[in-house]
Specification:
318 residues, single chain, two-stranded antiparallel ribbon, globular
């Protein structure tokens, strides 16, 4: 199946302005060599639609746009505790049955659950309302800590800025790392945060001068992936003990140094597989793996396919 081209974001009355901005930023016109999406906002009744900020948003399209979109995204809305109208639920179900990708940002998951699209699936939503989702829809396996969950044709994401993570994951999955990384750079965001990463951090990101050192170390690591990069070396460059560095790193990023490096290495390998004809052995060396077999093992475990199959899927070449 080719990647999605037409994208319809369903914006109910009371829709979150932040969510509208996120999907518009990712899937709106960008120019250059990036995909040219046919992106539309749609709602129950075209015209002025109230938002969570009280400022109306004029939306020109109705639910009929859900009937032809390759990707349908249910946006969060202030009145999510009340299920959408039957016509909305029917439109979401019909899109899924037709083979469209269906996703939900934040409490948009309540609309998918009401339509029965999350039955028997894992799903997430904003952590504040995960318990409510689980209580109302016990047939849904709610995972309150995940940033986003990919269940194939149905995806759900956490609240607020995690909508960017969900959209970038969709780009990465369907169009590859190079496209996702380019869009992420445009919106000044990390190119990839793993879906299993915690939605929020127990402590705020420290703001003293050592954070500047941490940022410098992360940038240095990204430029030197061909090196082994043991945690002890990263800690030395940050002028911290190994234990303090690991604690500070997790507080600032929500993940461990090992997991962060692994994701960065695999993301870099994806982009090289998509954009170059370098042998897999050379790609493995450039991203810091001791051999092509080690890269292959990690790629299969984390991405589900070996590197050469990934390259064929995105370039059509061996």
């Amino acid at each position: 199946m080719p990647p999605f081209v037409s994208v319809a974001a369903y914006a109910p009355p009371g829709v979150g302005v932040l969510a509208v901005g996120i999907v518009s930023e990712v899937f709106g016109p960008r120019g250059g060599e990036l995909p040219d999406f046919d992106f539309t906002l749609c709602t129950d009744r075209p015209g002025p639609v109230p938002t969570d900020l009280g400022v109306p948003l004029t939306i020109a399209h109705g639910l009929d746009r859900l009937a032809s979109a390759d990707l349908v995204i249910a946006l969060p809305w202030a009145g999510f505790r009340t299920p959408p109208a039957p016509a909305v639920l029917d439109a979401l179900s019909a899109a899924h049955q037709r083979g469209s990708l269906v996703a939900a940002h934040c409490v948009g998951a309540f609309a998918l659950a009401a339509a029965g699209l999350l039955d028997g699936r894992r799903a997430t939503t904003h952590w504040r309302f995960a318990e409510l989702l689980a209580r109302r829809h016990p047939e849904v396996r709610v995972e309150p800590d995940a940033l986003y969950i990919d269940e194939g044709p149905v995806l759900t994401g956490a609240g607020a800025a995690a909508g960017f993570d969900l959209c970038l994951h969709l780009l990465r999955r369907e169009y590859g790392a190079a496209v996702a990384n380019t869009v992420a750079r445009d919106v000044v965001l990390p190119s990839h945060r793993d879906g299993g990463q915690a939605q929020y951090l127990a402590a705020p990101v420290p703001a003293d001068c050592s954070d500047d050192r941490l940022a410098e170390v992360l940038a240095w690591a990204g430029e030197n992936l061909h090196e082994p990069l043991p945690v002890a070396e990263l800690a030395r460059r940050a002028l911290m003990s190994k234990r303090s560095f690991a604690r500070r790193f997790t507080a600032a990023t929500g993940t461990t140094p090992h997991a962060w490096l692994r994701n960065l290495r695999l993301s870099s390998a994806e982009e090289l597989l998509e954009t170059t004809d370098l042998p897999v052995e050379e790609i493995a060396r450039r991203v810091g793996y001791t051999s092509a077999s080690v890269l292959r093992e990690q790629f299969v475990r984390r991405r589900g396919v070996p590197p050469r199959s990934y390259r064929r899927a995105f370039t059509g070449t061996p």
